[in-house]
Design brief:
This protein is mainly α and 332 residues long. It folds into two domains: 211 residues, Rossmann fold (3-Layer(aba) Sandwich), CATH 3.40.50; 82 residues, Orthogonal Bundle (Tyrosyl-Transfer RNA Synthetase). The strands form two sheets. It has a three-stranded parallel sheet. A two-stranded parallel ribbon has the order 4-5. The structure holds adenosine monophosphate and tryptophan (TRP).
Amino acid sequence: MSKEIVVSGIRSTGHLHLGNYFGAIQNYVMMQENYDCYFFVADYHALTTHPDPKELKTNVFRVLAENIASGLDPEKVALYAQSDVPEIPELYLLLNMSAYKGELEKVPTFKDKVRQHPDNVNAGLLTYPVLMAADILIHRAVKVPVGKDQEQHLEMARNFAQRFNGRYSEFFPEPQVFRFNNDTVKIMSLDGNGKMSKSENANNTIFLSDDDDLIKKKIMKAKTDAGPTEPNAVMPDYIQNLFLLMHLTSKPEIVDIYRSQYNNCNIRYGDMKKQLAEDMAAFVRPIREHAAELQKDEALLKKILKQGAEKARASASVTIDGARKLMGINYY
Ligand code: AMP
Ligand code: TRP
């Protein structure tokens, strides 16, 4: 039986953090054995907000290295840069013919960007979801491992697929959000303000490139409070976030100890954070060290990118030929 096709991408806009790791990469690693996987660095998407030519290559190579260091095997999956697959922008152009200004302007991520950068509301930003749909549909993927924040984009990808199918002929499957163990993991910033992200609030974000001391410092500063005053109290979301991080990195017995202390109102957050800081530092260390080694080996990273692009283009060219034919673009 042929394996189901999976696509996902990460923008090369900065250092990867725990949100990227637990929200996305960990899923990729678990999927690589049983699915036909296409994972890529979304460098065109990065250009919508991060157009500095001097930083682009370093950012792309870092994202690549951090994915491999987290356990992705370039022999098992197609691991590539979006800009190495010209069939993607071609499909993007074709899909743009049935993407409408009104619906694109309504997308919450677009509205956020308009608010954040009123001086840079470019067409690439407006059509971001169309390019993302092209990334996915180019391999006719059915499953897309992404965090909760990408669900709306996925819905749009399904709309674009349906429109194409309705206008021409049944061609694209409708891609669905996928999480390996059905968990919607969302990692909040350590100060409790919003989600961890690459570009905001670096002091409250743990990056895969942070050293042990920095990780410990950041965790020891994480927001807590005076503790619960009645047994089995509901946890504030910033405390829940610390327990989630502990659940993801510490031994289950350790989490149980702190959870029961919480429920009995005798938890000392300082102790909990010290333990979490130790366990988190030990968790991130091998990833950071492996990624740093890989980034020194440009020849290897280039080889991996080339090989990934070849695999991705083999699949993409079949789709683009089919789409062009259905649209009537076949003159010879
Ligand atoms: P981005 O950093 O926005 O390019 O996101 C890359 C992937 O990481 C996407 O699948 C996001 O859903 C996921 N992601 C980003 N930030 C978080 C977070 N704080 N918690 C969980 N998942 C996240
Ligand atoms: N928009 C995604 C994000 O910000 C990144 C992305 C681009 C993506 N193209 C994709 C994710 C295709 C999954 C599939 O996280």
